[in-house]
Amino acid sequence: MEDDREWMYEGRVVNGMFSNEWGDKVDEFVAFALRHPKCVNGGTAIRCPCTLVKCQNKQFLNVETVKVHLYKNGFVPDYYVWIYHGEKQVHQRCSSSVRVSVSETDQMVLDNMNHTTYHRMVCDAAGPEFNPDEESNAEARNFYDMIRAGDKPVYEGNSRHTQLSAAVRMLEIKCRHKCSQAWFDDMSNFIQELLPQDNLMPLDFYSTKKLVRGLGLPVQVIHCCVNNCMIYWGDDSDLNSCKKCGHARYKQRVRGSGNRLYIRKLKVSYKKMHYFPITPRLQRLYASTATANEMRWHSEHHMEDGKMCHPSDAPAWKHFDGCFPDFSSEVRNVRLGLFADGFQPFGQSGQQYSLWPVVVTPYNLPPDLCMKEEFMFLTVLVPGPTNPKGKIDVFLQPLIAELKSLWGVGVQTYDISKRQNFQMRAALMWTINDFPAYSMMSGWSTAGMLACPHCLEDSDAFRLIKSGKQSWFDNHRKFLPINHPYRRNTKDLIKNRKVTKQFPGVRSGDEILQDLNNRGLRKVIDVDAEVVNAAISKTCGWNQRSIFWDLPYWREHLLRHNLDVMHIEKNVFDNIFNTVFNIPGKTKDMYKSRDELNKYCRRPQFAQNLVTGKYPDVPFVLNKSQKKEVLEWVKKLRFPDGYASNLGRCVDENKLKMFGMKSHDCHVFMQRLLPIALREFLPNRIWEPLTEFSLFFKQLTSSSLTDEELRNLDEQIPVILCNLEKIFPPSFFDSMEHLPVHLAYEARIAGPVHYRWMYPPERYLRKIKHKIMNKAQVEGSISIGYIMDEAAKFASFYFKEGDPTIPLKDKRNEVYLDDIEDDDMFEIFKPPGKAIGAEGKRYLADNEYTAAHLYVLMNCPEVQPFIDLFVTEKRKQFPNLNDEVVNALTEQEFPSWFEKYVCS
Fold first, then answer.
1. What is the DSSP string of 117-153?
2. What pTM was estimated for this model as a whole?
3. Phi, psi of 327 (to 5 degrees)
4. Which residues of 502-588 form beta strands (DSSP E)?
5. Please, how many CA atoms are within 13 Å of residue 833, restricted to the half-sphere of its CB?
6. In angstroms, rounded to a whole number, what is the distance separating the alpha carbons of residues 547 and 636?
7. N or C: which end of the chain has fewer CB within 10 A?
């Protein structure tokens, strides 16, 4: 039989007549059923699959009657799999085969199964590659247990919930609200008291987990060397000791002393990691109608006005498509991003324990779904308590092996939106990490004078004489045009120095790979890697050969590892704020920096006074009264709800500083507040470069970018950094002040920054941290919680409100515009929010009323034609007016003009 069975629901009636082609297909269906004696009653009767309530595959009728019913009523909905007529393949709502061995009892289950939403959920969860043995195994039993639970009402007479739907709904509520197992058990006991005694509601969390275990996805537990030397996986799975350090794999089975000896019954490894295969998780994106269509968005949307709003609009994506047209020709193939970061599960004051989750996320999805928590897949859980540092590649081996398989062979996957199978392949586009983890992933050291992974050995960093720290001062003139006057400046930067060299550009993947091969660097998983790499790393910035080079396509990427704008922006802001506010211990304007300042620059006005022994004040540092005024202003600031946290809580008025600022607080302050806060207190020659730096980050982090805008930023940032170098001492410029020079290039190559920074991963790590219920078994606790969360989220797609594009819970002041049905109301009065707290009334002052009146007029789409008319009249009356004057006249005269125009 052919796989495409859309004909069952299309083309039955054509131009008011029954279609002959459709009739021929019905004859083929009947012939197929008659070829399976077990599904035929009395030799000529088969189950009628029409839509009549008394039929629907329940009663047997002779074949001619069945044909008449089908002509008249059509097939029962979603009957793409002819399981009642001899087909032993359970399809996912159509022809994709989920082959199971069906015993007589299980066949009865299928025969009585109504095709409800939760039955479809079970079939989707089984997946197209579900292949038990000839006899029903444990996995098949889970499948049929859930089908049976989907047929049984939670108690007699309840038509809203079955045993299965109630279980998955309770589980989803637990995961969404981060409730404990004790809460779940108590709530289940309370619900038992409310329901009739013969109800089928699960008794506790254990019984619920047991019922829905078939919805969970696999996890592999792999033993590791206690020193992170190797994992017991693949060819090394049978070893009993580490092949590098010789440490035993298992703990001693005999423990104690004297008469208190006891023997462990099971072998217990010293350390183990958890690996969550990504293949079944990617397949589930195509198994659910909630996400299958969205996975093709990247190929179906088109750029508007040359603006990049998604990585698929960027040159890196298109270059990869050009290099591998066979991969890009199937738009359902998956592009992945990978990020890894560590966190302390016990907090800063608890036990020192470093846990490193490795997470992948698909980029096929549209902007409103891409990088969301629901589509981030925990893949590797690198165990603690120590930081893996350069040995993280040891734990990435299973992931790299699976990525190679997904690239070379792929996996047969069923796309429920198109009702067809396809061979799904996947490719890793890049990694996203903070700067220390960048070194772990790439193999290039991000410490020292060669820290920049774009400049590589072409860095001009140097070590300061007094402080001994590395400085990137005067390291940016090589990025300027060859005839730029700053290149010939011998006074304001490093004295008596002209710059003629040019930045050679970012190296290609082939060039880097050739360099690694020539140097003879080893992968960390090689036996002799530690000795060989230690010797080579003394002469270059490479520490090791990254395991990502094993991917056959890795060398073709234009960008393999991303610089994290989030942490770079935070560090830049911290340096600027701490220096301008002269925070003790954090300022970059220290005594040592003053001592060495004139060894590099000509700034004698800032040298030490030999008579008094004091250093003169510098113009970029605020005095006490100015600091106090800025902090009082910050403390009174109020932002729109959800825009930023309360910065007033970070103000310390006694020590005149700000403390406890998170990365997003620094992001908002750097881009929105810094130019305003310093405008009245710093000279223009200092304030302007700082403002330009602020605007650089603001434009860089826009949600949509054009190539022209990014090229302009790429040209502006070296000039901005050179202007800052004229102001601040060399000690101010560490690697974080240098890295912004490469950020515009990365955005131009890979697309908008918000798909490649650490804000979403950092929030996701917080979610993972909340899954730790047993602090004695951190990794296992996270693993169990994550599997349950996956099952609950998958089940939620089948709830009526399960669309992942809709937030699960409205924010406290959020109102959707769809809720407002008054079509005559002006757009500006359709509020996107609601009042917080008790309502109050007061009269507006005259200036407040004028400002509110002007705001309403200028932001109301219905008034815009009248604004255009007013501007046209003014330009006719005064032809030489520029835009600035026209805008000022509009604000001053339009309200009164509009009132006269309407009244007349």
1. HHHHHHHHHH-TT----SS--HHHHHHHHHHHHHHSB
2. 0.79
3. -75, -45
4. 561-562
5. 9
6. 51
7. C
